[in-house]
Structures are given as structure tokens and as C-alpha cells.
Amino acid sequence: MLLGPSLALSAVLFGIGVIGVLVRRNAIVIFMCVELMLNAVNLSFVALSQYHGVGGRVMVFFVMTVAAAEAAVGLAIMIAVFRHLESVDLKNINLLHG
Amino acid sequence: MTVVQIVFYVFAVAAVIGAIMCITQRNPIASAFWLVSVMMSLAGVFVLLQAQFIGVMQVLVYAGAIMVLFLFVIMLLNLGGETSDRRGAPSWVLAVVISGAITVSMAELASYTPDRLAHELSGSTELGADVVLLEGQQLQEAIEARGVVGAIAEPLFGSYLIPFQITGLLLLTAVVGAVVLAKRRI
């Protein structure tokens, strides 16, 4: 009953997350937009698991774990970058710029 | 329209508004709080999809642990209040075009019903959802027999045991990596 609307909501949230990653320059906000996209994917996993078995729900747990690990390491990297540059703005992180 | 659908659309609208506010707020702390509201709305949607345990985990792990970590780092680095970090208009146009293309290409998902899923999986239009999607029915039976948590715990510690152990290894690696990165100057 809610399968179609859930998948559509998932697609819309994923699209908003993509916009966020592309238009922001603050690295931490970009991280948050990535979390938003992971959440959107979780929603479609859960919606489909109602009809396709429990595997989708188990996969949501794995996605949550990977997201937690990614947040921990990513934010540690952000702190290291901030110590170096006094900023987490992507326009200052340009060592590989030609 | 049933009550469940009305509540679903309330949560869906709240999630979309929260997500739009999250990417447009100038202050990172405001962004983080809007993201918390999105995650709370999604937890409500999970409960409506009969995944109550996932909804609880969403509140505890995402809205609780991960977002507190984000807020902690934003406040530790004293971000926000300065100039806007949003890119100019060309970036916005490009981003909206790219994400619009992604979303439109997925727009057909909105018309999916269990029967259509069954038709595409089985390759014939005669078999309905009640014949093809047996795993979903097994999940419903498992939930009735063992409860919401038990229905997930049994495959998690059974057929998915090795991925589960690898997840533990991943968390250990992440903890060690985070400590090493944050400890000294790199």
C-alpha cells in the first residue's frame, strides 16, 4: 500500500541530498547531506523488505553501522584539517589544485 | 485514504521540508537540527512500514549518536555565523539539473505496487503478489511468531553472521583510525 509513495519519498530525499553535496562548501554540511542520502536508501530498503524478505532490514543495520564508522573517521579528518587550515571550507582545501 | 496513508504523507512532507531547510540553512548548527527532524520523520515512516525496531534504531543511532557527534564537532570548531558557504547561482542550476535528472529517472518508482513487483520478478502477469513474494509473507509470519526484534535477530546471527562480524571489525578499525587522526598533528 505504501510501497510506491515510500520509494518516491526515498528518491526525492536522495535528490535533495545530491543538491546539498553539490551546492555547499562547508565540509561538515556535505557530510550531513551524505547522511541524508544514506537515510533515503535505508527507506527504500525498508519499504521493499516488506515484500522481499528480511534481508533488506538486515542491510539497513549494516548501512547504519557503516554510516556511524564513516561519521567518526570523517569528523576526525575534519578536525585534523581544521588544525592545519583553521577552516573546513572546501575552497581552502586545494592542495591538489593544478 | 486510510489513516496510515494520511500519517505517512504528514511524515513525508515533514521529511522533505526538513531536508530542503537542511541544505539551505547558512548556519551548520541549524542544518544539523533540521537533519535531526528529517531523521525523526523517517523513523515515523519506518514504524508505518511495520519496521518498528529499525525506527527505534534510527532514533537512537542516527538522531541520537551520529547527530550528537556532528553537533559536537560543529561546536568544537566554532563554525557558523561567518560568511555563507553556499556556492553561486551556476552551481545551483547545475546541481538542480543533475539531481532533477536523478529524481525524474526514479519517478516511475512512485507507481510501484506489490503486484507490479511480483510481475517483474516472475516475468509473467498472471502471478500476483501473494504467490510470488513469499519471502515477505515469511517475514510477516516471523514477526508474528517471534516479535519485531526476533524476526531480524535470527537472520542477523544466522545467515548474515559473517557480514555481521566484518561490521564489528569495521567499527574497530574506525575507532582506531579516529583516535589516531585526532590525537596528534598530521
Structure notes:
The complex is a heterodimer of chains A (98) and B (186). Chain A has 3 helices and no strands. Chain A has 98 residues and is mainly α. Chain A has one domain: Orthogonal Bundle (Helix Hairpins), CATH 1.10.287. In chain A, helix 1 runs antiparallel to helix 2. The longest helix of chain A is centred in the C-terminal third of the chain and has 31 residues. Chain A starts with a helix and ends in a 13-residue tail after the last helix. With 186 residues, chain B is an all-alpha fold. Chain B has a domain of 79 residues: Four Helix Bundle (Hemerythrin (Met), subunit A), CATH 1.20.120.1200. Chain B is 77% helix and 0% strand. Chain B is built from 8 helices and no strands. The mean pLDDT of chain B is 86. Classes of the chains: A mainly alpha (98), B mainly alpha (186). At the A-B interface, helix 1, helix 2 and helix 3 of A face helix 1, helix 2, helix 3, helix 4 and helix 5 of B.
Helix content of chain A: over 70%
- Unreliable stretches of chain A: none
Straight-line N-to-C gap of chain A? 53 Å
Mean pLDDT of chain B: 86
What percent of residues of chain B adopt helix (DSSP H or I)?
Answer: over 70%
Under CATH, the homologous superfamily of one domain in chain B reads: NADH-ubiquinone/plastoquinone oxidoreductase chain 6, subunit NuoJ
Write down the secondary-structure element order of chain B: HHHHHHHH
> How many distinct helices of chain A?
3
Q: Determine the N-to-C terminus distance of chain B.
A: 58 Å
Radius of gyration of chain B: 21 Å
Give the count of structural domains of chain A: 1
